[in-house]
Automatic annotation (TrEMBL), chain A:
Pfam families: ABC_tran. CDD domains: ABC_HisP_GlnQ (cd03262). One of its GO terms (cellular component) is plasma membrane. PROSITE patterns: ABC_TRANSPORTER_1 (PS00211), ABC_TRANSPORTER_2 (PS50893). GO terms for molecular function: ABC-type amino acid transporter activity; ATP binding; ATP hydrolysis activity. SMART domains: AAA. It is a peripheral membrane protein. It comes from Terrilactibacillus tamarindi. This is ATP-binding cassette domain-containing protein. It comes from the Bacteria. PANTHER family: AMINO ACID IMPORT ATP-BINDING PROTEIN, GLUTAMATE_ASPARTATE IMPORT ATP-BINDING PROTEIN GLTL.
């Protein structure tokens, strides 16, 4: 379980997260939505310590990760995978090497084991024919699917998605969402920052609505999309739906 | 005496001059290797978060960039015996000076390369739990070096040409050999133009090799 407890984050004098508390239970899919600049991505990046919180606590399986030193940070990153808006595949490595590098380096998996697993994962995201390609040869949607497979190669217990479809051409959004949907069905615990309301509505167990660094609503998709409580959420939904 | 008859007068010495290319190349190559290794280490210090190492690396760089190379060379060659009582050979003095000097320039080139790597690469490696030094070695530096290959090739060519000043401490490189033959025959144009041509051909070959290497490295684009 991930538990965020009264979290604050400031960049200089600019407070981007203010008193954030939330829980993500094992197997839950949580969609974090809200206007740009509302702090969604920063919140996500705090959960795997890509950003250091200014105040507050974050518990992952009862460990307070805000107290962790560099060595322990690696432990967190093994547990919590991340998929980025701009993929960030390693451009000088083939798809296969992108998937096997971290397991071999960080988890001391043997090369043959890592490769076997990589092929399984590439099958799962429908890209087994791209094993030996370099990322530059892939479309945006393919890159993002490889990036998801790369995160999965570490056997994470939680997966964070930071606007995974925002950098994609419209016709490639679906192939990525389909992969995410099948992950959700298989019980992966996911926190997804997204502008895809359809995905949030259909797949999420819980929707978190943020604005100006604060959580304004936490609700089931049905409640949130049909009966939003705050004026800000109503206003937002009117614009995006 | 015509210019061309001068060449026949020194004909038997021409191979001697040309063979100086091996000394020149040896100095350039060994110095480049020292410079590269030093450059990587210094650049990592410069971008790292240990302030004292960053400061020392900047200071090191400013020393080598802020003084004439010929003075550095002379100092190493003539002062080392007086300072530590070690009778340094001209060749060793040459590769130490050029290697250390090149390290200063290389560290700036490599640092600019590291800064040019997408920040997302650091985050992606970090998010996968890759330790800092592995990330640098396997993810960041290979991409940085690919970006700076032209600049590094340029540095190597500069090194090759600038190595001519080792002639001032008596290393028998291309330049020095031309001077020796010139002095022996009191004839300047032919031996100097021979070494001139050899330097030029050498740099052209290195330029072509550099381009081929760059092309090979850009396979993943």
């Amino acid at each position: 379980m991930i538990k965020v407890d009264h979290l604050y984050k400031s960049f200089g004098n600019n407070e981007v997260l203010s008193d954030i508390s939330l829980e993500i239970k094992k197997g839950d899919v949580v969609a974090i939505i809200g206007p740009s600049g509302s702090g969604k991505s920063t919140l996500l990046r705090c959960i795997n310590l890509l950003e250091l919180p200014s105040k507050g606590k974050i518990y992952i399986d009862n460990d307070d990760i805000t107290t962790f030193n560099q060595r322990n940070v690696i432990k967190i990153r093994e547990k919590v995978g991340m998929v980025f808006q701009h993929f960030h595949l390693f451009p000088h490595k083939t798809v296969m090497d992108n998937l096997t590098y971290a397991p071999i380096k960080v988890k001391q998996t043997t090369k043959s084991e890592a490769q076997e697993k990589a092929i399984k994962l590439l099958n799962r995201v429908g890209l087994s024919d791209k094993v030996d390609s370099y990322p530059s040869r892939l479309s945006g949607g393919q890159k993002q699917r490889v990036a998801i497979a790369r995160a999965l190669a570490m056997d994470p217990e939680y997966l964070l998605f930071d606007e995974p479809t925002s950098a994609l051409d419209p016709e490639m959004v679906k192939e990525v969402l389909d992969v995410m949907m099948s992950l959700a069905k298989q019980g992966m615990t996911m926190a997804v920052v997204t502008h895809e309301m359809g995905f949030a509505n259909k797949v999420a167990d819980k929707v978190i609505f943020m604005d100006h660094g604060q959580i304004l609503e936490v609700a089931s998709p049905n409640e949130f999309f049909n009966h939003p409580e705050t004026d800000r959420a109503k206003e937002f939904l009117e614009k995006v739906l | 005496m015509g210019i061309f008859s001068g060449f026949s007068l020194i004909a038997s010495s021409i191979p001697y001059i040309i063979n100086g290319v091996w000394t020149t190349l040896e100095i350039a190559l060994v110095s480049a290797i020292i410079g590269f290794v030093l450059g990587v280490i210094l650049s990592l210090f410069k971008i790292g978060n240990i302030k004292i190492l960053a400061w020392l690396s900047d200071f090191y760089t400013s020393i080598f960039r802020g003084t004439p190379l010929i003075l550095q060379l002379t100092l190493v060659y003539f002062a080392t015996p007086q300072l530590i009582g070690y009778d340094i050979s001209a060749f060793l003095a040459a590769i130490i000076t050029f290697g250390f000097n090149s390290g200063a320039y290389m560290s700036e080139i490599i640092r600019s390369g590291i800064n040019a790597v997408d920040k997302g690469q650091f985050e992606a490696a970090g998010a996968l739990g890759v330790p800092y030094w592995s990330m640098m070695k396997d993810i960041i530096l290979p991409q940085a070096i690919k970006k700076i290959l032209p600049a590094m090739m340029n540095e190597f060519i500069t090194l090759t040409k600038e190595s001519a000043i080792v002639s001032t401490i008596g290393v028998l490189d291309l330049m020095r050999r031309a001077q020796v033959v010139a002095a022996e025959n009191s004839l300047y144009f032919p031996p100097l133009i021979v070494s001139f041509a050899v330097y030029y051909v050498l740099v052209m070959i290195l330029t072509i090799l550099g381009r081929l290497f760059e092309r090979r490295m850009s396979r993943s684009d």
